[in-house]
TrEMBL record:
Lineage: Eukaryota, Metazoa, Ecdysozoa, Arthropoda, Hexapoda
GO cellular component entries: cytoplasm; SUMO activating enzyme complex
Biological process according to GO: protein sumoylation
Keyword check for Ion transport: no
Family: Belongs to the ubiquitin-activating E1 family.
UniProt cross-references to SUPFAM superfamilies, sorted A to Z: Activating enzymes of the ubiquitin-like proteins
Compartments, as annotated in UniProt: Nucleus
THIF-type NAD/FAD binding fold domain boundaries: 17-316
PANTHER family assigned to the protein according to its UniProt record, in alphabetical order: SUMO-ACTIVATING ENZYME SUBUNIT 1 (PTHR10953:SF162), UBIQUITIN-ACTIVATING ENZYME E1 (PTHR10953)
UniProt name for this protein: SUMO-activating enzyme subunit 1
InterPro entries hit by this protein: ThiF/MoeB/HesA, ThiF_NAD_FAD-bd, Ubiquitin-activating_enz, UBQ/SUMO-activ_enz_E1-like
Primary location: nucleus
Length: 326
């Protein structure tokens, strides 16, 4: 992708984004102003992300979703009016999203993401995938990697949430000082490399050196792999039924077979926490973090997350975990 930051902000944009400009500078806002973002999946999480990105002042947001909205969506998807339940989720979200900021182009695409050719993704600076299965996310990440596009995958399951980031080779600026009163604030340029989603999820958990990095953090990566396995087998998210609960426990046990990781670190109750649908507070938290990271990667300012953010279902706190194949 060829970056263009030459377009100056209009007087209206400068006034509207005044607080943001004072926070991260005119150049960063210009980068945002030229950014085209694709958001796949307009569930409660997707709605939160779209809201935040539209308010931040990106150039455009394309919402891609082939599903019809259902009454349950109204508990977390605030962009869909009650009288539009039954309509396509992306189309039903358009008007309220556009009303948030008339300076941002907001459009809907009602096709299934699996129908999109590789060339479709070429025009975006960032692709955000919400609540897709692992195979689809790996496909999307590989397409984005081949075109130099930043990719983010995210999902919310009850009180559990995750974000995966792949920014390829990302260069960014960081401000620092000695910490002394009146010390000069300087800027340094850093570069960090990200592994592909495929390589991360094919990591060898039977390797003792690999498993060492999972001992201290909460077992969120194992919970995510279990959820992805359920999605692969059932083509849907788990419910609070006993059948689904037993299936999740079976997939957890299979995942840990031959892995030197204590099963008690992933207690059964964890899978009661994830099988209650999307909760609005969790969507708000994960959506805010995703949007913050989109702003970071587009503006090339401040240190980005590498390469997971998890919302811990046990104590309802978020943490960053770097999982990088050796």
């Amino acid at each position: 992708m060829v970056e263009d930051t030459s377009t100056n902000l209009t007087e209206d944009e400068t006034e509207l984004y005044d607080r943001q400009i004072r926070l991260w500078g005119i150049e960063s806002q210009q980068r945002l102003r030229n950014a085209r973002v694709l958001v796949i999946g307009l569930d409660g999480l997707g709605a939160e992300i779209v809201k935040n990105l539209v308010l931040s002042g990106v150039k455009s947001v394309l919402m891609l979703d082939d599903k019809e909205s259902i009454p349950q969506d109204t508990s977390s998807q605030f962009l869909i009016p009650v009288d539009k339940v039954g309509q396509n989720r992306a189309e039903a979200s358009c008007q309220r999203a556009q009303n948030l900021n008339p300076l941002v182009s907001v459009q809907a695409d009602t096709h299934n993401v699996s129908e999109k050719s590789d060339d479709f993704f070429h025009d975006f600076e960032v692709v955000v995938s919400c609540s897709q299965d692992l195979a689809q996310n790996i496909r999307l990440d590989n397409i984005c990697r081949s075109r130099g596009i930043a990719f983010i995958a995210a999902g919310v399951y009850g009180t559990f949430g995750y974000i995966f980031y792949d920014y390829l080779e990302h260069t960014y600026s960081v401000e620092y000082s000695s910490g002394k009163k009146g010390a000069e604030v300087k800027t340094k340029i850093e570069t960090t490399s990200y592994p592909s989603m495929e390589s991360v999820f094919n990591i060898n958990l039977s390797d003792p050196e690999v498993i060492k990095s999972f001992i201290r953090p909460p077992p969120a990566f194992f919970i995510l792999k279990t959820l992805y396995k359920f999605r692969e087998e059932f083509k849907r998210d788990p419910t609070d039924s006993e059948e689904d609960f037993k299936a999740l426990l079976k997939y957890r046990d299979t995942l840990l077979d031959g892995v030197d990781y204590p099963k008690e670190n992933i207690p059964d109750v964890a899978f009661r926490c994830v099988a209650v649908g999307q909760l609005s507070p969790c969507c708000a938290i994960i959506g805010a973090v995703v949007s913050q990271e989109v702003i970071k990667v587009v503006s090339k300012k401040d240190e980005p997350h590498k390469n997971f953010f998890f919302f811990n279902p046990f104590n309802l706190s978020g943490f960053i975990q770097s999982i990088v194949p050796s």
